[in-house]
């Protein structure tokens, strides 16, 4: 499903863009899209006091292949996700 959504973003699909609060691509469809996965944790009271941040986060990597629209209209993969580590 994510790859299908990415592909539809490349064509400025109205139904997919309606899933966003605002069109992230108001000047035309993007040439490349990717979906990344983040792990979030609440900060401790000490961390919140020191940094002012409610969250800590860690980038886990790509969730789906990163794709781009070629000049000839074809879709190509620019980067494949790495295997995710075992879930703890």
Give a short synopsis of this structure.
This protein has 88 residues and is of the alpha+beta class.
Proportion of residues in helical segments? 10-25%
How many runs of DSSP E, i.e. beta strands? 5
Give a short account of the largest sheet.
3 strands, antiparallel
Mean pLDDT: 93
Tell the overall outline: extended
- Please trace the helix and strand order, writing H or E for each element: HHEEHEEE
**Regions with pLDDT < 50 over 5+ consecutive residues?**
none
For the termini, the CA-CA separation is 25 Å
Major β-sheet strand ordering: 1-4-5
Secondary-structure-based class equals alpha+beta
Count of helices? 3
β-strand percent reads 25-35%
Backbone CA Rg: 17 Å
């Amino acid at each position: 499903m994510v790859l299908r959504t990415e592909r539809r973003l490349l064509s400025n699909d109205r139904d997919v863009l309606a899933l966003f609060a605002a069109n992230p691509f108001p000047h035309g469809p993007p040439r490349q899209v990717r979906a990344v996965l983040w792990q979030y944790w609440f900060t401790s009271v000490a961390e919140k006091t020191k940094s002012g941040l409610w969250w800590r986060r860690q980038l886990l990597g790509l969730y789906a292949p990163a794709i781009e629209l070629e000049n000839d209209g074809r879709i190509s993969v620019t980067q494949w996700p790495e295997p995710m580590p075992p879930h703890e």
